[in-house]
Amino acid sequence: MIARLSRVDKVYGNGVVALRGLDLAVGEGEFLSLLGPSGCGKSTVLRLVAGLGEVSGGRIEWSGTKDGGRGDIGFVFQEPTLMPWATVRKNVLLPLKLRGVPPDEAGARVREAIEMVGLDGFEHAYPRELSGGMKMRVSIARALVTHPRLLLMDEPFASLDEITRFKLDNDLLTLWAKQRWTVVFVTHSVYESVYLSTRIAVMTARPGRTASEVTIDAPAPRDESFRTSPLYNEYCRNVSARLAEATRA
Fold first, then answer.
1. Is the pLDDT of residue 98 over 70?
2. Domains, the chain
3. Which end of the chain is more exposed for a tag (fewer CB within 10 A), N or C?
C-alpha cells in the first residue's frame, strides 16, 4: 500500500464542499482510475494526494518511505503546460534542474524519459512545432524524469481526438507494464477507465466520496481485441450502472 485516504473532507474558502468522508486506498503498482460526474472532486483528490492542498478533515497516510512522507510524485495535468520558449529537452529537464541534479545524470534521465514516450528525434523541437498528442507526451516525460513512485494523471487525454487518445492509452499501458509505477488516473470515460485500469473507484456527485469500487480482472497486455471482447463490454455495463447509481446518490 502506498497511501490511504481516510474520511477525507475538503471545503474550499468560498464554502464549496468538494469532498465529504472520502475513503480510498492506493495500492503499490496498481493502475487506479477515479471515475465520476463533473465537479465530484476527482481532481481535488489528486491535488490533495500531491500535496497541492490541505485536507479540511480526515487524513492521508503514507507507507513505503523512510520518513512516512509522500516520496517522489509525478503529476500530468489536463493541459501540457509546457514552456513555449523551451525545447522538448529543456521542458523535460526542468524538474531535475530545479532539484540540482548533476548535468551528466540529468542528461541521461532526460534522454531516457524522451525515449520512453516515443519522442526520439524531437529533443530540439519547440512546443509550437508539436501536435497535441506530442505535447502531452512531453508532459508525461517531464513527470517521469524524476522516477516517481506515484504518477497522478488528471484527464490527460480528454482534449485529444479519439484516434490519438486510443494510441496514447495503449502507449501508457505499455509504459506502465514495463515500469510498474503506481498510477492514479482521473477520467470521465467509462470506456477509458475499463480499458486502462486494474481498479476503478466510482465517486458520487459533489460532495464526492467513494461510492463503489470495481476490480478489472482482464488479461495483459490489453489491446484492440480486449476493446471488442464480451469481457470488456460486460465490465463497461457494470461500471456504467455503478456510475449511474453513484450520480443519483
1. yes
2. 1-71+182-249 (3.40.50.300)
3. C
